[in-house]
Batch of 3 targets.
Target 1
Amino acid sequence: MGEYANYDLVVLDLEDTLIDRSLALADAACRGVDAYLVELLGVSKEGGPLFTRQEAMAFATQHGFTKGYDLMNALLLCALHSMPQEASEDEFGAYDGREMLHLVKQKQVFKTSLGELKRSLKMQEFKRLLKSRQPGGKALRRITGLRNQFLVLAEGHILMDNFVRRLFLEAYLGDDLFFREYNQHVQFVQGEPSLNLEKTYFTAEELAHLRRKFFLAGVTSRTHTEIQYCLEHLEIAKFFSTTVAKGSTGPGVVDEEAARLTMDLGIEEAMGDADYSAKVMQAIERVRGLEESQPVARVAFAGNCTPEERGLAGLKDRYRLTLIGVVYGGDKKAQSAQKAAGADMVATDPESLFKVLNEKPKVRFDMF
């Protein structure tokens, strides 16, 4: 490297540290809700959208939704609970999946528009209901008894059974990426992918500055296809020596058959962070293999250190890893949790993370 630095390699959790997905996730959730109501249930699209991006982002922040399809699920539950008409579960509940939704649309159960529904949304009632339960997606599993709730198909991960997940992904990925991931074209949500709204917390100039100091590697919970599209769209892919994605194995190779199997079986989300430490190890070993001419001994990881299933404590001992806990917007309690999980230092905003990464080694002076 051309400049002195504290590290030879920094492994970044791309979602924790670098990529702001909030606007993109909110956009996909809003578009997904509209498509679900219009395309699957026959609501008129006049007066839409039902929710704006800003409303969805504020709702997600207030109630702790971190996953886009959980956010869409919640907004859809609120919308159907607010409908002026109520579908009969006795009449339609005996049918499965798409057939049930098709019959509801065919019989024109919901004689309303997105604009009319927006004016009658029971949002405050729904927010009070969420507030009395756990934050985020966990709260949704505890909610029962809402009007038209049986029409929200959000169970499991197989796309033909889980229409909330499918429509969210169609909106988020767009037709080209959706086809590359699932080998089928979008059916319900047209237009540019919401993914294009993702932003980076660091500018290209800042990343170039860091890259002159040390090697950069990325780990992500997303697939190789999706994250490469994202990095290239943001024009920052060139700064990373390697990126380890979901389903990655070996020296830079994606085991597509294994990744496809987890999608088909519907277990990709259930796996969670179970393979997280393996991805961090792969990132380190790949860079060491790629950059044999230069030493890669001093390694740091930057990301959320609190989830135990990530196994970062074990890696800290194995690689003498410096752990930089990252919790943007975190309060003192969140910072303490990072420290308790083994973080050597904590960054609560992109500026403080950049400062930590940019620190020069302390110079020792021998006194005679």
Note: Residues 250-256, 264-268, 363-368 have pLDDT under 50 and may be disordered.
Target 2
Amino acid sequence: MADIADKAQSQIDNALTAALSNATVYRGKSALYCCQCSDPIPQARRDAIPGVSLCVDCQEEEEQRARHGL
């Protein structure tokens, strides 16, 4: 018989599966040039991330600011 931890894990798994199946992926048009620095965004990045608007360098800066609360 399943113990309480197994039941809880099952509920968590079910909730996570439901949330992931309901998630939508943005499929908008990617920018050709970075919105912050105007450098070209490589085709491979635009293909990999639909709707991308920042180059890798600017995206990394944004993520660092977000992590450090700036």
Note: The chain is about 55% helix and 0% strand.
Target 3
Amino acid sequence: MDYIKIRGAQQHNLKNINIDIPRDKLVVITGVSGSGKSSLAFDTIYAEGQR
């Protein structure tokens, strides 16, 4: 699998987010305060990576 695929993420401020994040690459997540960056990075991506 070349990507971590996230479909329909809805934790905290995330509203039905779909994203494919490439593995073995440096990925930067940016946005305004409270936009869900930490929820995406720590909660959602961590959970997907454990599967």
Note: Residues 3-49 form one domain.
